[in-house]
Model the fold of this input.
Amino acid sequence: MINTAVQQSTINLSSLCYLLSNSSTSSSQSPPGPMRLLSHNLLQSPLSQLPLNIKPDSTLIHSPTPPNTELIANLLQNSKLDLPTLLAAVTSLASPLSAITTSLPPTASVIITSLIADPLQTLPTASLETLHTLLMDVHVQDGGMVDQDSGREFRIENGIPNLILLEDEL
Done:
């Protein structure tokens, strides 16, 4: 009897957490998965500890949010972003990104290349907004990421990256 009550409260609590975390999305569309390009930028391969290359045939979703230029400026100022990996992702995803907005890939590439050359520069608000769109509003729904060293592919399904190693890879 107690176990049933505990299970029910756990289910209700997890349902509540789900509803709260997705309260800003409309009920007519399914919420995008959590795999933002920012998340991709922070991930490393569990095999080689190198950044993962994102596959160009990945399915992207654009979920616009109000620009948070302060967040992006802080990420840049504190060197939290791997700019070469971000540039590689933009280059790899140029075609799917163009489907979202035609100006995003070339504009983002110019901004990132400029930041690689001079990481301490202060960007104008428009550039910070472009980076916000790229990092926070673009979600990888389905696709894959590839280890640079071994070529091992890690799948992304329903917005969730699977970085679990196979038994023989441990």
Observations:
- The first strand starts at residue 52 and ends at 54.
